[in-house]
């Protein structure tokens, strides 16, 4: 898969390799009995500057209160990071499912402060590494959703200092880009 850069931006997002939309794989079997939101584990390492620093703390992570989804707008200085107990130096390991109600070609865009890597349906759909303000790489890559249903989600996120954010927008087939509603996320309790 080719990496593509947007001039002037520090990170990178994964783009299709020129062969068309990236094919996402639905959960098989489709999950039942899901709770609303996404499961999250938190670790509180020392200094982090990149996603691999957050990953090195995974073995010390503990369960946290579920996330409502990728819906945490830019916070203010001193606010706790998502559902964690801390305001700085937070690593989050996120798992669950996202529901696509319509098959077809979808576009997705993420915003984060600081680093975020997201896989949906077995494919890494976004990566913006390093320390940065709440922004996106601006990618609106095309993803093929072959059938309506639940798709597995895994993400690694970190926040170093200052404020934090983690948000997702999507564009269903034939519609406009919108913020992703929180009722499309689920996790196994």
Give a description of the structure:
The chain has one helix and 16 strands. It is mainly beta. It has one domain: Jelly Rolls, CATH 2.60.120.1560. The longest helix has 5 residues. The N terminus is likely disordered.
Can I get a quick summary?
By secondary structure, the chain is an all-beta fold.
The biggest sheet amounts to: 8 strands, antiparallel
**Strand tally:** 16
Tell me the β content. Answer: 35-45%
Rounded to an integer in angstroms, the radius of gyration calculated over CA atoms is 16 Å
Q: What is the total number of structural domains?
A: 1
CATH class annotation: Mainly Beta
CATH architecture: Sandwich
Provide keyphrases for this structure.
disordered N terminus; eight-stranded antiparallel β-sheet; 1 helix; six-stranded mixed β-sheet; mainly beta
């Amino acid at each position: 898969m080719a990496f593509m850069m947007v001039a002037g931006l520090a990170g990178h997002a994964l783009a299709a390799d020129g062969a068309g939309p990236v094919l996402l794989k639905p959960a098989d079997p489709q999950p039942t009995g899901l709770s609303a939101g996404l499961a999250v584990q938190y670790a509180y390492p020392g200094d982090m500057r990149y996603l691999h620093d957050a990953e090195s703390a995974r073995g010390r992570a503990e369960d946290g209160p579920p996330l409502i989804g990728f819906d945490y707008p830019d916070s203010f200085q001193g606010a706790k990071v998502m559902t964690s107990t801390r305001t700085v130096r937070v690593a989050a390991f996120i798992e669950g499912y996202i529901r696509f109600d319509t098959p077809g070609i979808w576009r997705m865009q993420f915003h984060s402060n600081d680093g975020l890597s997201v896989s949906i349906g077995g494919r890494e759909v976004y990566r913006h590494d390093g320390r940065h303000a709440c922004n996106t790489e601006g990618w609106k890559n095309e993803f093929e959703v072959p059938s309506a249903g639940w798709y597995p989600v895994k993400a690694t996120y970190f926040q170093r200092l200052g404020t934090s954010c983690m948000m997702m927008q999507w564009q269903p087939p034939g519609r406009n880009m919108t913020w992703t509603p929180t009722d499309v996320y689920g996790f196994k309790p």
